[in-house]
Design brief:
Helices cover about 50% and strands about 10% of the residues. The chain has about 300 residues and is α/β, with parallel strands linked by helices. It has 4 domains: about 120 residues, Conserved hypothetical protein from pyrococcus furiosus pfu- 392566-001, ParB domain (Alpha-Beta Complex), CATH 3.90.1530.30; about 40 residues; about 55 residues; about 55 residues, no CATH class. It is elongated and about 75 Å long.
Length: about 300
């Protein structure tokens, strides 16, 4: 295999796949790859004989990017082969390269160059995850989910995971912590509404309700990461009054009312009710502007 084709795979994945130096790009169009000369080589195989990898961690593919890649393939051909494993003499399962496979289908190709590998399910998952993690355009939540899957399904520790993906343990930990954020914030990060810096700042807040409130302000006001960090520091410096007796736990009905009010005011509303049924409603605010927003909602 030429050095140019080796480099197309990327150093980490190429080392993982341990590709052979034999290349067979001109296999017969009418025959499947033989058992003896296919493994580790580049072979032309029928797209109709390839099933999608069930372990594919990537769930979203940009339609325009696929169209652009398809147009490029029509002109230049597919430069980087996909990787498959043989499941029977005339069927294969995709290990990595689903985006390339989709683009080739759009381009109307009947065959595709592929590395044919032997791999068990865990190896398939690990290969697919590593290939996706190495992509520059993978969003932070997709990376975090891939890391978590490698830990859960490949039985890896964080240190071992770091070695597999060439990242230090603190980087791996920072990504995994993103999965502790409320789902609405994870979706916002996935969709590009907030950045990784915003998400890391939010992780310094222990309370999910406050996280959601700050997130809403980030989206509404276009707050910078530095501004969010300042808000978080102000919250952490605020006195935490725990004097006197702790209030009784709220009933299910009152808890629901408290949650509904928190959602309505985008602030951490608290209901305090004593055993006689008396109590109060607290609506905290983080700034004069925030107070003005709440008063406006109350028609003050």
């Amino acid at each position: 295999m030429s050095s140019e084709k080796r480099n197309a795979l990327g150093k980490g994945l190429s080392a993982l796949l341990n590709d052979s130096v034999s290349v067979n790009p001109n296999k017969s169009n009418n025959a499947s790859v033989s058992e003896t000369d296919s493994l580790g080589s580049v072979n032309e195989i029928k797209i109709s004989e390839i099933e999608v990898n069930p372990f594919q961690p990537r769930t979203e593919f940009d339609a325009q990017a696929l169209a652009d890649l398809s147009a490029s393939i029509k002109l230049q051909g597919l430069i980087q082969p996909i990787t498959v494993r043989r499941t029977s003499p005339r069927s294969y399962q995709l290990i990595s390269g689903e985006r390339r496979l989709r683009a080739c289908k759009i381009a109307g190709l009947k065959q595709i160059p592929a590395y044919v590998r032997t791999a068990n399910d865990q190896q398939m998952l690990e290969m697919a995850l590593i290939e996706n993690i190495q992509r520059e355009n993978l969003n932070a939540i997709e990376v975090a989910l891939s890391f978590q899957r490698m830990i859960d399904e490949c039985s890896l520790k964080q240190e071992e995971l770091g070695d597999r993906v060439s990242k230090n343990r603190s980087t791996v930990t920072n990504y995994l912590r993103l999965l502790k954020l409320p789902p609405t914030i994870q979706a916002s990060l996935r969709d590009g509404e907030i950045s990784m810096g915003h998400a890391k700042a939010l992780l310094a807040v222990d309370d999910s309700t406050t996280q959601i409130y700050i997130h809403q302000q980030i989206v509404k006001q276009g707050l910078s990461v530095r501004k969010v960090e300042e808000m978080v520091r102000d919250i952490q410096r605020a006195p935490n009054k725990k004097e006197g007796k702790q209030p009784e736990p709220l009933s299910f009905q009152l808890q629901k009312i408290q949650d509904d009010l928190t959602s309505k005011f985008s602030s951490r509303v608290k209901l305090k009710v004593n055993t006689q049924g008396n109590g109060s409603i607290e609506i905290p605010f983080l700034s004069e502007d925030d107070l003005g927003r709440i008063l406006e909602m109350l028609d003050w």
